[in-house]
Specification:
By secondary structure, the protein is an alpha/beta fold. It folds into two domains: 7-65, Orthogonal Bundle (DNA polymerase, domain 1), CATH 1.10.150; 73-338, TIM Barrel, CATH 3.20.20.70. 33% of the residues lie in helices and 19% in strands. The chain contains 13 helices and 14 strands. The strands form three sheets. A ten-stranded mixed β-sheet has the order 3-4-5-6-9-10-11-12-13-14. It has a two-stranded parallel ribbon with strand order 1-2. A two-stranded antiparallel ribbon has the order 7-8. Bound molecules: iron/sulfur cluster. Residues 115, 117-119, 122, 124-125, 159-161, 194 line the site of iron/sulfur cluster.
Length: 350
């Protein structure tokens, strides 16, 4: 990414934009125009803000820029999924995935460079943590996405743990929902988490967006072996907290369950899952596991080799839950051929 010392307007709060406008000697109403150019129209340059005078645009451009940066690389899957490599403002890189599906267009956004959570099944977890994304970095993945005009949904399911960068994630979602922005309904935005003690309650209290919890195994010890986060904030405690909130309205609670062949796909797991979720208004999404590029070599020596799930067993798992009153769907796997599917994002060497 070309280094620039100019300050990005994308990611700036309305009060800060007011200050920018005042400093540039613009009338008070120009702050509103600036907000709309940046957050609603999504222009790439200050020069495109044509209802500001040329002189005003030049003055603004001395210190500021919009902050949109195009992807550096892209890959396209046979199934229509696209993966983009975006630079961050501090010189790192993240991956972002666009998933078309009939009349839906979903972008899977990253919120950190790498991740601290070290989930065993995830290439981002193996990358380790290299830094937080700013609000600008997060919004850039949406506003500079080539398919921006086709977007219907945004999911924070890319690289990183959203609750570990909650200020930036909350701010980014607020810009998307704001009247001066896209005025999106929070029902079109889902934030996914492995469950962080510091953050889950705050998210529940402050955000109207949908919540997805990465569950993957209903038994604490086995879950901890897959997801170290279980040790610091056990699923049982998360469920206790979640039961304090009303899920019968429009905000949706879902649980992501990656199905590993022979590991968590039997009736024993489905039974325990149904027991844990009993009476909680929610849905379960079953996701097919993909062998990670490094795992073929690791599998033989590992005490817990991870294997791809069998479609028949996944269907039986879904039916078991459905018969016990838990809404359950098998999620179509997308973009596996370009390493864009669940758990495959990694920018370690980029
Ligand atoms: Fe982090 Fe999510 Fe990967 Fe776990 S699954 S390591 S929380 S990016």
């Amino acid at each position: 990414m070309e280094k620039t010392s100019r300050i990005p307007l994308l990611g700036m709060a309305p009060d800060d934009i007011k200050t920018v406008a005042a400093e540039a000697g613009l009338p008070a109403f120009a702050a509103k125009q600036l907000l709309q150019w940046v957050y609603q129209k999504g222009v790439a340059t200050i020069d495109e803000m044509t209802n500001l005078s040329k002189q005003a645009r030049e003055r603004l451009s001395e210190r500021y820029e919009v902050g949109l940066v195009s992807p550096l690389a892209e890959q396209h899957s046979a199934d229509g999924t696209a993966k983009y490599l975006f630079p961050t403002r501090d010189g790192h890189h993240v991956e972002t995935v666009f998933i078309p599906d009939d009349d839906r267009g979903t972008v899977c956004v990253s919120c950190q460079v790498g991740c601290k959570m070290a989930c065993r099944f995830c290439m981002t977890g193996r990358q380790g943590f290299q830094g937080q994304l700013t609000v600008t970095d997060i919004l850039n993945q949406i506003y500079a996405l080539p398919e921006r005009d086709r977007l219907t949904n945004i999911v924070f399911m890319g690289q990183g743990e959203p609750l570990d960068n909650l200020d930036a994630v909350l701010a980014a979602t607020q810009f998307l929902m704001a009247d001066y922005g896209w005025a999106w309904s929070p029902r079109r935005i889902t934030v996914s988490t492995s469950g962080l003690r510091k953050g889950l309650k705050r998210f529940l209290d402050e955000s109207p967006c949908h919540l997805a919890i990465s569950l993957h195994n209903p038994f604490p010890e086995e879950r901890a072996a897959l997801m170290p986060a279980e040790k610091s904030y056990p699923l049982a405690e998360q469920l206790e907290l979640l039961r304090e909130y009303d899920w019968t309205g429009q905000r949706r609670l879902s649980f992501e369950y990656i199905v590993f062949g022979g590991l968590n796909d039997s009736n024993r797991y489905a039974r325990e899952l149904a027991r844990l979720l009993q009476g909680l208004e929610c849905r379960v999404n079953l996701i097919r596991w993909h062998v990670l590029p490094e795992d073929d070599a690791l599998a033989a020596s590992s005490s817990m080799p991870l294997a791809e799930a069998d479609a028949t067993r996944m269907a039986a798992f879904r039916d078991y839950l459905t018969h016990r009153g838990v809404r359950c769907t098998i999620r179509a796997s997308r973009g596996q051929d370009i390493d864009a599917a669940c758990g495959l994002l990694n920018t370690k060497n980029k």
